[in-house]
Amino acid sequence: MRFYIKPNIFEDSILLNLKNEIETFFQAKLVTVESEANVVFVLDKSIYPGYLVKKMNQEKVIILAAETVSLLQGFYYYLLNLINNDFNDVRQTPNQAIRMIDHWDNFDGTIERGYAGRSIFYENNQFLDDYNRVKMYARMLASVGINYIALNNVNVHHEETFLISAKHLAKVKFLADIFGKFGIKVMLSVNFASPIRFGDLKTADPLDEQVQQWWQTRANLIYDLIPDFGGFLVKADSEGEPGPFAYGRDHAQGANMLARALAPHHGIVIWRTFVYNAHQDWRDRTTDRARAAYDNFMALDGKFDDNVTLQIKFGPIDFQTREPVQPLFGALEKTNQIIEFQVTQEYTGHQIDINYLLQQWYEVLHFDTKHGQPELLLKDVPQTKSPVPQNSGVAAVGNVGRDDNWTGNKLAQANLYGFGRIAWDADLTPEQILSEWLQLTFGKLEHLDVIKEIMLSSNATYEAYTAPLGVGFMVTPQNHYGPSIDGYEFDRWGTYHFADRNGLGVDRTVKTGTGYTRQYADANYAKYEDLTTCPDELLLFFHHVDYTHVLHDGKTVIQHIYDTHFEGVEKVKQYLALWPQLEDELAPIDYQNVLEHLNRQLKNAVEWRDQMNTFFYRMSGIPDNQERKIYA
């Protein structure tokens, strides 16, 4: 292979990296005459955003883009087509401007909600310096279009607070340089109380001039060393993290103070809306955690600076297997927005249970917020409802660690790959993305359809044997793996199911409940408020109903609980029966890895089935109409 880059100037680190990537993959030769090349890369200012890949004939391809990072992305797309032997001319433009992975890595090497070993960045409050592994990771993220990464946990502990100090910034720069060559901007999660924690000031009040100057000085220090630094990610006034509420200030005042320190350097502040009163009383049914983001941020619409973006979880609670779309989306008109997902399987199986999350994400992204004419799908909200679209997009909490296969369960890699692909193009179906990943990961297998069958049904299977009908949070406290039906029922975090002898579910209606339904656009409000039109899969999120309430499919709630939990276990047994067909086709380490996790998944599914069915039989006194084994 011969390639040509026009112009042939390699001062740009991304362009130089493109040259190195081509040479690495193809052992190719850079030529100085365009007509001699098989693949030609051309910087063309008219091709923006994204890139154009055009097949001129059987021997020549031209890749055009306005930016060097887009040329690199075009090269990866070209590779994808070569590997899949499915080459077509294509004009690729990303759906979202920001496509981000958030790491919840701690400086001691642990990862909050990490299920694949320890951090690839840190150990014992030091940087790991394993730059080859970081480079491989950066290449993977760039190949699916990721362009931002946050390097540390949003819960910023003592040592991590000092990542923005001169002591650590030189090492942050090393990482930023690696990711920068792949077109990925590095961000850091910061502690809002840093001026106090550093010992410089006695306050972190965002309206205090000394505090403002402190952050401006800090920003200047960072950008002097890392000119392409992305900015700050902030979790404030939630779960014990400090924030502007301590000083009687609102979140716009807190975010804008940081944003103004970054603005001269073109940095951004991503401010999470995960803010709620954690000290709820289970006795008080008028308080509703689901309301918190809307109640805290809707009144601030239009008060945030242009380089502030609100990062909003896709649902109103906390990355549950099933919950409705957060009503802030579509309602906010004057504020930059990022949709937040969770690739790491905190509530969705810990990367023990197979759970292909693209099924959930695709459905969520194609939800109609009803704030547009004729429609406004969630996938279009960041770019159409944000005053500065280039500061908006999607983000997800990542799932990699130091395990040999990066994600603990080999099949969990598909979620990370899939997030990047759906962040770039939300109209790619889960089936399309899975087919790509399978081909790239395993090549041509005789029984490839076995893996596809397991993965495409896995999200529904996990939902079937865990919490029913959108009720959520029946998990082991703190750990969030395995059943604990009443684990959070009397807890200050405010995630309740209110099961009694007659029924279960949370009444979030205007008529008799917390009024949460009114946060939605009129059409969705009417749908969720009315018991007869509320979708069954979200019934118990919005309504408290009797066990004998009849669902749209004709089953009662209690029979649905029994049936789905039995069916979920049977489905996992089917996975275990199918998997041996791949023993002779997969690398032994991959085959055994998935087999081990499937066996663990079956134990988990059985425990969910038996505890859930026993609990609700004892609570309701209503037997299973199929007379299956329930531990009464």
UniProtKB/TrEMBL annotation:
<dbReference type="GO" id="GO:0045493">
    <property type="term" value="P:xylan catabolic process"/>
</dbReference>
<dbReference type="InterPro" id="IPR037054">
    <property type="entry name" value="A-glucoronidase_C_sf"/>
</dbReference>
<dbReference type="GO" id="GO:0033939">
    <property type="term" value="F:xylan alpha-1,2-glucuronosidase activity"/>
</dbReference>
<dbReference type="Pfam" id="PF07488">
    <property type="entry name" value="Glyco_hydro_67M"/>
</dbReference>
<feature type="domain" description="Glycosyl hydrolase family 67 C-terminal">
    <location>
        <begin position="407"/>
        <end position="628"/>
    </location>
</feature>
<dbReference type="GO" id="GO:0046559">
    <property type="term" value="F:alpha-glucuronidase activity"/>
</dbReference>
<dbReference type="GO" id="GO:0005576">
    <property type="term" value="C:extracellular region"/>
</dbReference>
<dbReference type="InterPro" id="IPR017853">
    <property type="entry name" value="GH"/>
</dbReference>
<dbReference type="InterPro" id="IPR011100">
    <property type="entry name" value="Glyco_hydro_67_cat"/>
</dbReference>
<feature type="domain" description="Glycosyl hydrolase family 67 catalytic">
    <location>
        <begin position="89"/>
        <end position="406"/>
    </location>
</feature>
<dbReference type="Pfam" id="PF07477">
    <property type="entry name" value="Glyco_hydro_67C"/>
</dbReference>
<protein>
    <submittedName>
        <fullName>AguA protein</fullName>
    </submittedName>
</protein>
<dbReference type="InterPro" id="IPR011099">
    <property type="entry name" value="Glyco_hydro_67_C"/>
</dbReference>
